[in-house]
Amino acid sequence: MSKEMTVAPLPTVRRFPSYLRVLEQLKAEGNVTASATDIANVLKQKPIQVRKDLAYANVAGKPKVGFDIDELSKGLRSFLGWEKVSDAFLVGAGALGSALLGYDGFNEYGLNIVAAFDANPGLEGQKIHGKQVFPMEKLPDLVNRMKVKIAILTVPRDAAQEIADQLIEAGIKGIWNFAAPYINAPDDVVVQNENIASGLAVLSVKLATELDNT
Amino acid sequence: MSKEMTVAPLPTVRRFPSYLRVLEQLKAEGNVTASATDIANVLKQKPIQVRKDLAYANVAGKPKVGFDIDELSKGLRSFLGWEKVSDAFLVGAGALGSALLGYDGFNEYGLNIVAAFDANPGLEGQKIHGKQVFPMEKLPDLVNRMKVKIAILTVPRDAAQEIADQLIEAGIKGIWNFAAPYINAPDDVVVQNENIASGLAVLSVKLATELDNT
DNA sequence: TAGATTGTTAATCGATTAACAATC
DNA sequence: TAGATTGTTAATCGATTAACAATC
């Protein structure tokens, strides 16, 4: 029955963050309300798609006017669980890991990276973008004491599964995985796999067909 | 008719890179052939989906045996246009830009970042991960002289559209956009928008429903 | 009021999954 | 040979798009 709460197609969920962005922009431009059409125009999407998506935010719009921007933002954030910020650990402070540590937009996305971990002893005790780097050994204890549930995995590919196992063992319930195409985890652990190459593949194929057409 | 060449659903294209990864792994483990089922097992996907996807690679498999790993890799790479490596410029050498400059896996994905550009004069002439950083003013000339067609856009959000316009003006035909949720471009320019928040949104929603179930 | 926009139900489209004959 | 796997056609499923009444 809680299955019923899940709903909203995943493609819809993926689009929510950009709607939030656009709402922010429209607000900055001085608007108080925004219609599905307004949002669609900015993103060059179809109004009907945005309208259908927004229905999941459970916010009432006014015919002819649209939605109150603040209310709609709140509804979207609430749907995504981004009202209260969750703490996260970042594991693997290499190039990508450091970049993510330096990204200050996560707070807006309900995520607060509280510390980093790395196997490299040279990084121990250092700060990267203001975040303390701990040795891997400290992880289980800190997960426990700080009740952190989310980890961002940016270790080298070959270490990914092993470190993921450690994270799960330590009690992490959500892994945002940039390290490998797939990671094994028990059913009660959520793994979100990111693969930077997917987007590049799409770009490559589109470019090839575009160049063919000219 | 070149429209016919385009085919392969975009979701299929997005999955190709991970298939390549798995093939590499299976090869490293000493295998010469791999079946759709083998790949599916590693990625915990359905064999029928992998089989259907692989059909687009135009490589003949042998019943009971599967595919020759090298042949299949070649077929997938060829489909993606990753046989010949394309040069690319990276624009915006901040945290994320620097991380991408340091990622040495792009060559395998048919991409070679030849140089970076940044508006910050302090970076001018420096090298980041071995790549030279040029001031923005040099971009048009270098795009022209080096015949670069692809740009990776990692500038701050507010500058995204303006810089994209400059890139297009300079002759760039493909923009891999990490800077803003959407960028305006003429029809003959391909823009691939990446939004790191999309994956986080999915993770958040899955985590929330998972926690509800327990 | 007139008409743009919402909210919702129905139609369409495309991707995933199933089924199964061919075959190594 | 027996049976696992390919290649392909058909069935299903789910997301996108269309249609339209309600309404501010």
Task: Describe, in plain words, how this protein is organized in 3D.
Chain A is globular, with a radius of gyration of 20 Å. With 214 residues, chain A is an alpha/beta fold. The longest helix of chain A has 19 residues, at 10-28. The first copy, chain A, is 44% helix and 17% strand. Chain A is built from nine helices and nine strands. In chain A, the strands form two sheets. Chain A has a seven-stranded mixed beta sheet with strand order 5-6-4-3-7-8-9, with helices on both faces. A two-stranded antiparallel ribbon of chain A has the order 1-2. In chain A, a hairpin with a 2-residue loop joins strand 5 and strand 6. Chains A and B meet through helix 2, helix 6 and helix 9 of A and helix 1, helix 2, helix 6 and helix 9 of B.
Quick description:
With 214 residues, the first copy, chain A, is an alpha/beta fold.
Oligomer: homodimer
| Overall outline of chain A | globular
Number of beta-strand segments of chain A:
9
Which segments of chain A are poorly predicted (pLDDT under 50) over 5 or more consecutive residues?
Answer: 1-5
| Strands in their spatial order, largest beta sheet of chain A | 5-6-4-3-7-8-9
Helical proportion of chain A, percent range: 40-55%
What is the element string of chain A, with H for helices and E for strands?
HHEHHEHEHEEEHEHEEH
Largest sheet of chain A: 7 strands, mixed
The most extensive interface, with participating residues per chain, is: A-B, 66 and 68 residues
Mean residue pLDDT of chain A: 95
Total number of helical segments of chain A? Answer: 9
Helix/strand/pairing category of chain A: alpha/beta
What share of the residues of chain A does DSSP label as strand, in percent?
15-25%
* Rg calc of chain A: 20 Å
Q: State the end-to-end distance of chain A.
A: 53 Å
